[in-house]
Specification:
Layout (H helix, E strand, L loop, with lengths): L8 H8 L3 H9 L6 E3 L7 E3 L2 H11 L25 H20 L1
Antiparallel strand pairs: 1-2
Helix pairs in contact: 1-2
């Protein structure tokens, strides 16, 4: 491949394995520089340098890092108010209900 040859938007799309429209979106977002060919300003004929496409790829390159192991939070009570164990209260009520229902059936 000749690195001196300017690329069209279609060729850039092929290199990046994206659509022509996506290349234009990258240009309009300022992520992919281009060289305007011709005198048109409304719809410029764009050409791209290989090194700009390579730089874009390098900027976008990333690695997937697995998340850190989950750490359980420990909450301290600094307000001086009593800590209410709602789950413990619920379990206690359920145990009492089971006990009552067991007494009726037995």
């Amino acid at each position: 491949m000749n690195d001196d040859k300017l690329l069209t938007a279609g060729e850039v799309a092929e290199i990046l394995a994206i659509s022509y429209k996506s290349v234009l979106e990258l240009v309009h977002a300022g992520e992919l520089p281009f060289i305007p060919i011709g005198a048109g300003t409304i719809r410029p004929r764009m050409r791209f340098e290989h090194r700009d496409v390579d730089d874009f790829i390098k900027r976008r390159k990333t690695r997937l890092v697995s998340p850190a192991p989950r750490i359980t939070r420990r909450v301290s009570n600094s307000s001086g108010l009593p800590v209410i164990g709602f789950m413990e209260m619920r379990e206690q009520r359920l145990a009492e209900k089971r006990k009552k229902n067991g007494d009726k059936n037995g």
